[in-house]
Amino acid sequence: MNGDVGNNRIIASGEKKVAIVGGGLVGALNACYLARHGVEVHLYEYRDDIRQMEHVAGRSINLALSFRGRSALARVGLEQKVIEQHGIPMYGRMIHNPDGSRRSIPYGKADQCIYSVGRRYLNETMLTEAENHPNVHLHFHHKLIHSDLKKGKMVFENNGEEVQAEADLVLGCDGAYSAVRRQMMKMPRFNYSQTYIPHGYMELCIPPTQHGQFAMEPNYLHIWPRGQFMMIALPNQDKSWTVTLFMPFDVFDSLTNPDCLLDFFRVHYRDAIPLIGEEKLIKDFFSNRASSLVSIKCSPYHSSKGLIMGDAAHAMVPFYGQGMNAGFEDCLLLDELMTKHHMDLDRVLPEYTELRNPDAEAICDLAMYNYVEMRDLVNSRTFLLRKMLDNLLHAFFPNSWMPLYGMVSFSRVRYHRAIEHKRRQDKIVRSTVMALVAALAGGAAYLLQRGDLWRTAADTVHAQARQALAGLGL
Ligand code: FAD
Ligand code: EGU
To answer: Is 118 close to ligand 1, i.e. is its CB under 6 Å away?
Structure first.
């Protein structure tokens, strides 16, 4: 039907029953995967069936889908459908400067891109695909309230009534505030940490123009980097833009009336005002509330009959556009291990934790690091310079030099390996520059033929080079 790998392998697995808690992005994809293993799949979702809803409240309307997420969709035959029918390619970033000037920086070679996809569309597509399998059963309005992850027992609340269920495996795909994880936290030796950052986010909208067109160049991820504040815009299928404003909660709180808000936008996001429209900006801003951003690490991800995946296991700040992509890659890994161990959960689950934990924690760290970096960025020029330097080196050494964002968004290099690779590259740049500087200083010293001057000169240049490198974020 579609050009994906989509091999319909069915592995006989007896009467095995898998319960998926949460029918969001990761839960829905997991249902597609497990359906192919021939197990009896029951997916329990707290909300209504989004396919039957007119408006869906909640988080980010669109997301950046990159290589990892695409790879995971491909294996259940959904990649082409998603990117061709509902993906808007973004070939680079478009940086908006405070003075209104713009500059684009490509992601790589001409065809390299990430896709802006609607959360709702993605979720619906995966639920429908899952439901096509006779062994998949979807249960909406089911909120997990109790669970026993040793026995595989669950209690749901369904329209005010309690419903009991039992399964051989309970997959917690219930997001950052996971009820399954809450149960795991009662286990001995379960590690957990969470961090709320001072920034919150609010989604605004740039509507289509009068002629029904995109109000900005559509095939870019638009960024307004402003140090303490930042705004990002991703294109929607209906030619509107979802704009996400990131700033500290106290700044959100300080914008108490329309005049404050407009003054703030005139200083920081002047070019966005006519795009959003003054009236709409005021209306949307004051009818919305800023949401918080949390980063969560924990381990292990499994108990005897339970496993947490996606945000439930590794919620991260969104500054790498990887939360969903990492969650989709989780599904890919589980599928690989299920195949490798013929569904033997006693082997699959511990190996899943062992393999996935270092990578999940690595991407949480990378996303947090990027947050700090974006926040402390003095201006967009620094950002630009860094990306150009990275791209330049990549152009010269395409096989060995890969910028970090490339490893993260355009490869399936394990996240923890990407960090190691980045450290090695940084070291190389540093020592190369240092060597150059030392050679220059040495040359100068030779010409001056003054040993004592050489020391001072070399030290000064060395210190300056260090500073310059630090300024570049290397
Ligand atoms: P969720 O999508 O949160 O789904 C969890 C589901 O579980 C929900 O449907 C919920 O109703 C259900 N549920 C919860 N509790 C229960 C219960 N007790 N019983 C039954 N059901 C329950 N990622 C990217 O890859 N690219 C991006 O560009 C990107 N941008 C982002 C921008 C922002 C502002 C934010 C906040 C996040 C962004 N992300 C992005 C991250 C992405 O949204 C998440 O990583 C992704 O949604 C995680 O999917 P999930 O299925 O694990 O959790
Ligand atoms: C943040 C919020 C640009 C969607 C990181 C880039 C993001 C997204 C970047 C959000 C940025 C930041 C990268 C991608 C992506 C960039 C990336 C961030 C999608 C380093 C809807 N980030 N995001 N990096 O390179 O690798 O374009 O809300 F502004 S996609 Cl913060 Cl590639």
So the answer is: no
Report H helices in 257-379. 258-268, 273-276, 278-287, 311-314, 323-340, 345-376
Q: Is the CB of 114 under 6 A from ligand 1?
A: no
**Over residues 278-285, mean pLDDT:** 97
- The Å distance, Cα 24 to ligand 1 centre, comes to 6
Q: Which residues contact 198 (CB under 8 A, 6 or more apart)?
A: 248, 249, 250
What is the SS3 assignment for 298? Answer: strand
Name residues whose C-beta falls within 8 Å of residue 160's C-beta, 6 or more positions apart in sequence. Answer: none
SS3 294: strand
Q: Is the pLDDT of residue 187 over 60?
A: yes
242 CA closest ligand 2 atom index: 21
Give the position, in ligand 2's atom list, of the atom nearest the Cα of 93: 27
Residue type, 459: D
438-465: average pLDDT: 68
The pLDDT of residue 350: 98
Tokens coding 290 = 């800023």
Pocket of ligand 2 (CB under 6 A): 60, 64, 66, 93, 114, 221, 223, 232, 234, 244, 318-321, 370, 374, 405, 408-409
**Residues 6, 2: Cα–Cα separation, whole Å:** 8
Ligand 2 centroid–CA 201 distance in Å is: 14
* Section 304-312 average pLDDT: 98
Cα–Cα distance measured from residue 396 to residue 403, given in angstroms and rounded to the nearest whole number:
12
Ligand 1 center–CA 329 separation, angstroms: 14
Answer for the pair 123, 152: CB distance below 8 angstroms, yes or no. no
Q: Which two tokens stand for residue 212?
A: 């029904």
Assess contact for 136 and 115: CB atoms under 8 A: no
> What's the Cα-to-Cα distance from 10 to each of 57, 280, 285, 338, 343, rounded to whole Å?
37, 52, 50, 12, 12
Q: Give the ligand 2 atom nearest the CA of 114.
A: 32
Bridge partner residues of 144 (DSSP): 156
Question: Exposed (0-12), middle (13-18) or buried (19+): which is 232, by Cβ within 10 Å?
Answer: buried
**Of the candidates 244, 361, 216, 340, which has an alpha carbon nearest to the alpha carbon of residue 298?**
361
**Orientation angle between helical segments 25-35 and 119-131, nearest 10 degrees:** 20
CA-nearest residue for atom 30, ligand 2, is 321
Q: Which residues of 26-62 are buried (b: 16+ CB within 10 A; e: fewer)?
A: bbbbbbbbbbbbbbbbbbbbbbeebeeeeeeeeebbb
**The 3-state secondary structure of 128-186, one letter per residue:** HHHHCCCCEEEECCCEEEEEECCCCEEEEEECCEEEEEECCEEEECCCCCCHHHHHHCC
Above pLDDT 70, what percent of the chain?
Answer: 87
pLDDT at 14: 59
Higher-pLDDT residue of 444, 10: 444
- Which residues, in sequence order, are CB contacts of 188 under 8 Å at separation 6+? none
